[in-house]
Specification:
mainly beta
C-alpha cells in the first residue's frame, strides 16, 4: 500500500489451486484435473473517515484473473494426454475497507468488493476479515479468512466457483 494524504494505491495478489483425480476400475485409465487461479488486484483507495477508533476507505480498481486448467488422461491404448487452457480477463471492482485499531500494534481489517458487471466476468466478489500485527510503519504480518467468487464465461471456457479459506500474508506500506 502506498498512501499520500487521503489517497492510496493498494496491490493484492491471491493464488489458489484445486486438484482432483479419478481412476476407473480395474485400474486401466485415469484422469487428473488441476486448476490454478491467480488474481491480482490493483486498486485506488480514498479515505472517507479516520479517527482513533476507525478508518474507512472506498476502493475502485480492477481484478485481473488468470486460470490455468490442466487435464491429464492415461490408460492402456491411450497415450498420456495433457491439455491446458489459460484465459486471462480483467474485471472492474468497487468496494470498501474498514480498519479498527485493537491495541498498540494490532489492527482488525474487514474488506469487501464486487465487480465484473458483464465487462470481464458476469460477477466477481471477495470478502476478507483478519488481523494484522504492524511490526513498524512499513511492515506488517496478516492472518485472516478470505472468500472469493467468480462467474465467468467465454466461447470456450466457463468458471463458476467460490473459494474460501484461511489466509496469511505480509503487508508493505510506504
Amino acid at each position: 500500500e502506498a498512501r499520500r494524504g487521503r489517497w492510496g494505491i493498494l496491490l493484492d495478489a491471491v493464488h489458489g489451486k484445486v486438484s482432483s483425480g479419478t481412476t476407473r476400475r480395474p485400474r486401466r485409465s485415469a484422469r487428473a484435473t488441476s486448476r490454478s487461479r491467480w488474481a491480482e488486484e490493483p486498486t485506488i483507495a480514498f479515505r472517507v473517515w479516520r479517527n482513533e477508533k476507525l478508518v474507512i476507505d472506498v476502493l475502485g480498481g480492477a481484478r485481473i484473473s488468470i486460470v490455468d486448467t490442466e487435464v491429464k488422461l492415461s490408460g492402456p491404448g491411450v497415450p498420456n494426454t495433457r491439455g491446458a487452457d489459460t484465459p486471462p480477463w480483467a474485471d472492474p471492482v468497487v468496494g470498501g475497507r474498514l480498519r479498527v485499531p485493537l491495541a498498540e500494534r494490532w489492527v482488525l481489517t474487514l474488506l469487501g468488493d464486487v465487480g465484473g458487471f458483464g465487462i470481464g466476468s458476469d460477477l466477481g466478489w471477495q470478502a476478507f476479515g483478519g488481523i494484522a500485527y504492524e511490526i513498524n510503519e512499513t511492515w506488517s504480518l496478516k492472518a485472516g479468512f478470505r472468500a472469493m467468487g467468480v462467474d465467468y464465461e467465454n466461447a470456450s471456457f466457463k468458471l463458476a466457483i467460490v473459494s474460501h479459506g484461511p489466509m496469511i500474508g505480509v503487508g508493505i506500506r510506504f
